[in-house]
Automatic annotation (TrEMBL):
Protein name, per record: Methyltransferase type 11 domain-containing protein
Coiled coil start-end: none
Annotated Methyltransferase type domain residues: 58-160
Source species: Cladophialophora immunda
Xref: Gene3D superfamilies: Vaccinia Virus protein VP39
GO molecular function: S-adenosylmethionine-dependent methyltransferase activity
Length: 315
């Protein structure tokens, strides 16, 4: 079961085909789980312990504003950037405020621009912490890292995380067969709608380009202090995970990038017996019933393999 990663992040090929409108953004925000406080605390602890300040937070590929909201109370100024107006409308509706009670700003910009297109633009060396949650796999990292080096203060931090591939938890009834059903769904129904970023998520960002792995390295960042933290499936990565009924499961899966593209390409099939997610759900129900689960009590339990990357700008 691969993670239904965000389709709102600033990856150029996504901006017209799977960027969310306001209604899609609303649904996304309603069903997507927020990250567990331990994720935010890990970011903050590392940032502060390595000399990072708490003046300005920049959340890039912010989507509906979950990470901005999760960290806002620690920063005097908060700015979220995303190319999707639908997502930004939801983020603005959250009423996110900073530690100084200043309303967070949510503006249209890509990861490569990092606010250079705004008026006024994000100033050079003005940002303490840059975050990107389940979004960086859509960035052009050769454009992102130089921009990050430009806007970050010396000693600032870039925190990038993803939930990685989400799989059927081994403790589920008929777990192996359910995982096989997911794998078949991905191969048969989603393969044509996958982008390279989806594969980077499955690899837990092992192949995500870092400043020192680019053809033209961005020397402002310190490779020697790089931290990669992986979440064990038994650790909390999301709030309210890993178990949900199949109604919630179906809604969450429908917000995924590949699934969003499929739905855009097959609008007449959405919600019908030809809907690939309906077909998958019926298969899961069948497998759970075969394992003795009563009708109406079907639940999905997920194993989440999250990862967090922490990169420091040289002081």
């Amino acid at each position: 079961m691969s993670q239904p990663e965000s389709a709102s992040a600033p990856f150029p090929k996504e901006k017209t085909f799977s960027s969310y409108n306001k209604e899609q953004g609303k649904i996304y925000a309603q069903v997507r789980r927020d990250y567990h406080p331990k994720v935010y605390q890990t970011v903050l602890d590392h940032h502060k312990s390595t000399g990072g300040g708490l003046d300005t937070l920049l959340d890039v590929g912010c989507g509906p504003g979950l990470a901005a909201r999760g960290l806002a109370s620690h920063f005097a100024h908060v700015l979220g950037l995303d190319p999707s107006e639908g997502m930004l409308a939801i983020a603005r509706s959250l009423g996110v405020v900073s530690s100084t009670s200043e309303p967070a700003r949510f503006e249209i910009s890509t990861a490569e621009e990092l606010g250079a297109n705004l008026s006024p633009p994000v100033p050079d060396a003005s940002v303490d912490l840059i975050t990107a949650s389940n979004a960086a796999h859509w960035f052009d990292m050769s454009g992102f890292w130089p921009s990050a080096a430009r806007v970050l203060k010396p000693g600032g931090t870039v925190a990038i995380w993803t939930s990685g591939e989400i799989r059927a938890h081994p403790s589920m009834p008929n777990a192996a067969a359910i995982q096989a059903a997911f794998d078949e769904h991905q191969e048969r129904d989603m393969k044509a709608y996958l982008e390279p970023g989806s594969l980077i998520v499955r690899g837990r960002y092992v192949d995500l380009p870092l400043p020192w792995t680019l053809p033209q390295p961005v020397v402002e960042f310190d490779q020697t202090t790089f931290v990669r933290k992986e979440w064990d499936p038994n650790e909390d990565f999301f709030v309210g995970m890993p178990e949900a009924d199949l109604d919630v499961f179906e809604k969450v899966m429908a917000t995924g990038s590949a699934e969003t593209r499929w739905r855009q390409a097959h609008p007449d099939d959405v919600g019908t017996e030809r809907d690939v997610l309906k077909i998958l759900r019926k298969k899961i129900e069948q497998l759970l019933h075969e394992a003795g689960v009563e009708e109406g009590k079907e639940k999905m339990k997920a194993a989440v393999y999250g990862v967090l990357l922490l990169v420091k700008k040289k002081a």
